[in-house]
């Protein structure tokens, strides 16, 4: 063996090549082969189990059915896009003809109202969750900092935070719906009502973990750093900007990651419940539709929800790695 | 020499759940300009409390401290502190840590170029120019403490306060840091109060060693003048009669006159006491 290693080393003119190669193989095995094996096992178990579950809409979809449906959904999306494009060209042609015939004609463009496809629902859900999340962030981080800095304020607000935190935003949904309907009245609204309702529900649930984590992060700043700030006589503004905010960044990110995970779960449920456009509505529509394809299509949506949730979390983690000074807290 | 700092009749009481704990009683100390004074004593004797009162981080219950004719009632950059565990801000590089202090303290008097030069000058003083753009997590404990000293020096303090600055370092690094500090001191002639546990460190660095009695109600026991010639060389001093004599005097004070009696049966009480003192 050792002669073999020596030989390869000499051949490649690269000492320690064999050792490196072995290490690389080990990493590949650990990081790629083992997870792949896990996924394969899951697919087998799933396909066997699916075969044995009979529902009123036929057999529970196995991996193959789901894959077919996923392809169908992509085809449908492409067809729908084509139809929309055709619709607009037709409309333009017609408008041009009428304008030629009658110069006084006022051109009106009507929007295409075709079938809503999965990709467009994914897009709606993503925009909604990010909007709600951003709203929550704008409110929660300043409030969290204020609570963390001021014991009195903490005593005043902590009970409220603790009471509202366990409330599922779905319980708020009817109230949010009614209030938005009553307050947000405009002839030409910039956002649709359903979008605002969903986003507010997301914001309501993202708020609490972010407030709590920010406050804890701020309140647990080491006394040493506060002493530094005092010796330098930093003003309150500078104290917050130069010491408090950076010191709390790791905890703020932890809160944000928790919030985003919860927000994504809640959004899907809210969309199902309120019939607001998005992935949740897609699932609900398919359920109501009740064709033999429905279960497979729902399964595609379920996997999509999972993958997007995972990607959101990873994005947040990458952001944390990029922006947080505490690399240890960003490694998990 | 002129008196720069006058600590007079300072009492310090802490309120604890079990009643009032008297940490300091009647502490009196005058420090001249350019003097290097060490505070030495057993742990929990209130050395840090004295330093924190001078720093303005604690308010004396009775009495007070006057710096340059002005009463001390809050922290400020004229009394820069070198903290035991460096307290560098981990999200800023060595340069940025020093720059934050310089901008805050001297920013109104300096332009951007002067600020940059002053930061670099102070980092150079502690031999840290090579790692100026590293984060605290990327440098060793001794290097962090160097940056901490640079930050304190950069504030151009009236008096430099050091709270066991080398306590957390290994013996070799500590010796190296002491030599660096003597070198800087030789150049700048700052007024310094340093807290230490280390008898050799106290004798090597100080002009005066202030020895404190054990708490509760700790006060100044004895003051020892160290008239060893500067610059001092630690190797040459090893066999120096004056040095060993001074060293012996400090040791005698700490281990004979102020021996900490901690009987085993009182271990529980000791624990209680130390938790009280750690509040100090």
Brief descriptors of the model:
heterodimer; A: 332 residues; mainly alpha; MetI-like fold; 2 domains; two-stranded antiparallel ribbon; 11 helices; 2 strands; 79% helix; 1% strand; B: 280 residues; alpha/beta; Rossmann fold; six-stranded mixed beta sheet; four-stranded antiparallel beta sheet; 39% helix; disordered C terminus
Give a verbal description of the structure:
The complex is a heterodimer of chains A (332) and B (280). Chain A has 332 residues and is mostly helical. Chain A folds into 2 domains: 2-52; 118-323, MetI-like (MetI-like fold, Orthogonal Bundle). Chain A has 11 helices and 2 strands, in the order ααββααααααααα. Chain A has a two-stranded antiparallel ribbon. In chain A, β1 and β2 form a beta hairpin. In chain A, α4 runs antiparallel to α5, α4 runs antiparallel to α9 (236-274) and α10 runs antiparallel to α11. The longest helix of chain A is centred in the first third of the chain and has 39 residues, at 63-101. Chain A starts with a helix and ends in a 9-residue tail after the last helix. The two termini of chain B are 32 Å apart. A 6-stranded mixed beta sheet of chain B has the order 6-7-8-3-9-10, sandwiched between helices. Chain B has a 4-stranded antiparallel beta sheet with strand order 2-1-4-5, covered by helices on one side. The longest helix of chain B has 18 residues, at 171-188. In chain B, α5 links the parallel β7 (160-163) and β8 (192-196). Chain B has a domain at 3-78 and 193-278: 3-Layer(aba) Sandwich (Rossmann fold). Residues 273-280 of chain B have low confidence and may be disordered. With 280 residues, chain B is an alpha/beta fold. In chain B, α2 packs across α3 (112-125), α2 packs parallel to α4 and α3 (112-125) packs across α4 (141-154). Chain A binds chain B through residues 222, 224-225, 227-228, 230-234, 238, 242-243, 246-247, 249, 325-327, and chain B through 55-57, 74-77, 79-81, 83, 85, 87, 89-91, 100-101, 104-105, 135, 137, 155.
